[in-house]
Amino acid sequence: MSHAYVVVAEVRAGALRQVTLEALHAVSLLKEEGDSAAAVLIGSQITPLASELAEYLDGEVHVLDHPALENYNAEAYFEALTQVLGTLNPHTVVFGHTAIGRDLAPMVAAHLNAGQISDITAIQNTGTTASFTRPIYAGKAFEQKQFTDGPRVITIRPNNIPTAAKAANPATIVETEYSPAVDLKSVIKDVVRKTSGKVDLTEAKFVVSGGRGVKSAEGFKPLEELADVLGGAVGASRGACDAGYCDYAMQIGQTGKVVTPEIYIACGISGAIQHLAGMSQSRVIIAINKDPEAPIFKVADYGIVGDLFEVVPLLTKEFREI
Ligand code: FAD
C-alpha cells in the first residue's frame, strides 16, 4: 500500500527555513517505493518561494497564499492546512520543531486522529520499521520511539537531520484557494519581531553565547563581533537575560531555545543544568570561564580558563585572519 508524506513548510523573513529542507530529507529517509511526497507552503506573497521549494521535492508543492496568512495565526493556519490535508489524506505529516510546528502539530494530530512523536533528532528506517530518536530528561538521555498504527505526525529538531538534496524532477506546484472563515476568533493586529540577530539562533552553525559573566549589555559587543566573523548567532543564558543584558529571544536552555550548532562558545556561563538542556547536544562546545571549577567545563570539549573580555577578542582576531 502506498503512503502520502506531507511536509509543512515554514517561511521566515521572506525565506524558506532550513528546517523545511531537513523535514524533506526526513521524508526521503522514511518514504518507500510508490509512496508520494508533498509540501504545503502557507503564507502571504509566498508563491515565488514555491518554485524554490519544488527543486527539493519529487512530488507536489501546495501553495496557500492569502493576506490573512501573512503572520502565523493558529486558527487560520490550521484551517488552511487541514483543507489541503483533507485532499492529500496523509500517512505522515512532518513539521519543524519550531514555535509554529510545536503549536500546529498537536492540533493536526488530534484532527487526523494520529499519533505524534516530537523533537526528533534522528531517524532509523529498516524498511519494515522506522524508529525515531528524541532527547528526554532535558537532553540527559535519548529514547527511541516507533509508531504502531494509523496516521503519524512528527516534528524534527532543527539542525540535526541533513537538508534534502535537489530532486531529479522538481515538484509540481498546486495553488489552492483559501477563504478565511469569517468567524476567526483571533485577529492579529500588530507583530513585534524580536530576533536574536541576522542568523536564526536555532539554525545557526556557530553560536556564541553570553552569561552573567558578560556583566552588561555593552559586554555582549565582543560576542557579537565574534559571531559576525563566524557567520553565527548570539545566544545567552537566562542569567544574562534576567539581568537585563539581552532580550529573552536569545535565551538558550530548558525554558528558552534549544540549539545544536557545529560549535557552541559559552562565555561567562556557569553551566547550570537548565542551560545545558538547551545546548549540550552541540557538536563541539568551547567554554570560556574565569572559574576553573565552573560546571560548564564538564560538558565542554575545549575549555579556556580566563577572562572572556581578553579571550573573545583574541578568538575574533584569529578567526578574522583565517
Ligand atoms: P552564573 O551562574 O552567575 O554564572 C556566571 C559565570 O560567569 C560564572 O561561572 C563565572 O565564573 C563566570 N564569569 C564571570 N566573569 C567572567 C569573566 N570576565 N570571564 C569569564 N567568565 C566569567 N538558565 C538558562 O540559561 N536557560 C534556561 O532556559 C533556564 N531555565 C530555567 C528554568 C528554571 C525552572 C530554573 C529554576 C532556572 C532556569 N535557568 C535557566 C537558570 C539557571 O539555573 C542558572 O541560574 C543560569 O543559567 C545561570 O546563568 P549564568 O551561567 O549566566 O550565570
TrEMBL record:
Q: Which domain of life is it from?
A: Bacteria
User: CDD domains of this UniProt entry?
Assistant: ETF_alpha (cd01715)
The protein's organism comes out as Paenibacillus zeisoli
Give the GO molecular function terms. Answer: electron transfer activity; flavin adenine dinucleotide binding
According to its UniProt record, which protein family does this protein belong to? Answer: Belongs to the ETF alpha-subunit/FixB family.
Q: Which residues form the Electron transfer flavoprotein alpha/beta-subunit N-terminal domain?
A: 5-192
Q: Summarize where FAD binds, as residue positions.
A: 212, 237-238, 251-255, 268-275, 289
Query: Which biological processes are named by the entry's GO terms?
Result: fatty acid beta-oxidation using acyl-CoA dehydrogenase
Keywords on record: Electron transport, FAD, Flavoprotein, Transport
- Recorded protein name is Electron transfer flavoprotein subunit alpha/FixB family protein
Pfam families reported for this sequence = ETF (PF01012), ETF_alpha (PF00766)
Q: Which cofactor does it need?
A: FAD
Q: How is the cofactor bound?
A: Binds 1 FAD per dimer.
Q: What are the transmembrane regions?
A: none
